[in-house]
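A common beginner's mistake is to predict each chain separately and then try to dock the pieces by hand. The better habit, illustrated here, is to supply every component at once so that their relative placement is modeled jointly.
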Amino acid sequence: MVEPLNLPDLDSASDRAVFRQVADHLRDAIDRGQLGQGDKVPSEAQLMQHYGVARMTIRNALQVLQSEGLTVAEHGRGVFVRSHPPVRRLASDRFARRHRDQGKAAFIAETEGAGGKPTVDSIEIAELSPSPAIAERLGLTTDDRVAVRARRYLINGQPVETATSYVPAEIARGTRIMEPDSGPGGIYARIEEQGYRLDRFVEEVKSRMPLRSEARALKLAPGVPVFHLVRTAYATDGTPVEVCDTVMSSDAYVLSYELPAR
Amino acid sequence: MVEPLNLPDLDSASDRAVFRQVADHLRDAIDRGQLGQGDKVPSEAQLMQHYGVARMTIRNALQVLQSEGLTVAEHGRGVFVRSHPPVRRLASDRFARRHRDQGKAAFIAETEGAGGKPTVDSIEIAELSPSPAIAERLGLTTDDRVAVRARRYLINGQPVETATSYVPAEIARGTRIMEPDSGPGGIYARIEEQGYRLDRFVEEVKSRMPLRSEARALKLAPGVPVFHLVRTAYATDGTPVEVCDTVMSSDAYVLSYELPAR
DNA sequence: ACAAGCAACTCCTCTAGTCGAGTAGACGCC
DNA sequence: GGCGTCTACTCGACTAGAGGAGTTGCTTGT
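With all components supplied together, the output reads:
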């Protein structure tokens, strides 16, 4: 036994369920740094022995921690304290023209600025009729047509975000918006070239647990919620010109917004 | 048997775990509306019989749904499809002076506007030294003093949000900021009366699973993440005058922000 | 008519095992 | 050295029970 199980005993006087007490002990150890990121949690067998309880009880305790996003189990290896990816801070001026004028899309510029290696992945482009929600935001009907651009963003090979943009087909047709490489400055630059001057974005933020498909696409650990952003871009005349639907791993991001007091 | 268990059989050819298949069937039934909000999910015993599997297998399946936030178990009564509270939309102009000038605090004005009955609860007020994070945001040191105002907001008796404000003691002392009823227009009005004109707020948004204490205070169902906002208020001269730390049930809110394209 | 009591039904916690499959290190063979 | 095999250890899935506690509704006695 290399590893001293520095855990308290059960409090048999307490009416707190045994598996919760075990979970509490381990959570404390993680909070106090006694178990650091990436460290191996004692195995089920060790914990069974230490506490003198059945395996299912220990598994319940570990399940609690896992669903809190504190640990990850790896089949055949053990249970480990989850390590958190570096946090990216998204500022509310990230779509400001002065950034776009550098000729780089927002994501690329940001990531390189932070010293990461950005990649864009599995780009899918189509032209089809919008869902009612998208149609409403773009001021269209479900009989109109929109260009759809779906892609996944990665940093150092790790997926962090999926995004789907919807642009009225009127605007997108014949531009590089319909091509995998949308050109310098990204699709916002292309939209402005079509004679629309971007004025403002409205971003709606929700938080929820991921769907199964999202958890797969973003390689999310269990117990990690996602941010779901729906951003609508408006031209100076008030016309909506793009809707972008984004799902992001919530533990990789802090969103930052500036609100006026005026 | 009043209730026909309209669920498929197991696919024994599939290598998908049995408890996951059961969870999939129930999730489908919920998604398709076959089981609506508040409906009772078949009992563990019924599901055991239907699928011909052990109790723990069924419980695992139900655990999956619960941790996805789709169901709630009630001891002695059954498992029910979760019903979602009405969603509140927080606009980015919610702290604009024109709203404050009505003489109401942001929360009260908003909630009444949406036809709900707002309450504020368990107000705690103290003067103490700030944590390093708060001190940094306020441009103070941990030896300085701040006024702390913690409260919980409810709508129709249902808790939706806890908030803690930190104001430099220099500003707060001798004002109604230190009293349970901070007066018309709330603490922002009091701060402006002290000669600081509010200019802008910077709001940082995180999403994560709640701590145990937060889940209790907000009466959160399992599997529901929280928004964690930290908002700093700046006066026109750039001085930070308040930090507000807010935890909100994520399924009760959509945050909406306006971003400049300029 | 009413209340008390009881039974049935619900989920909660826990025990004690089996079999399976992935991982990693030790070992021996080539 | 390089390669495969063996084995011990890990978690994953599942079975088959036990007693407990909260809820609901029926039965029964007054």
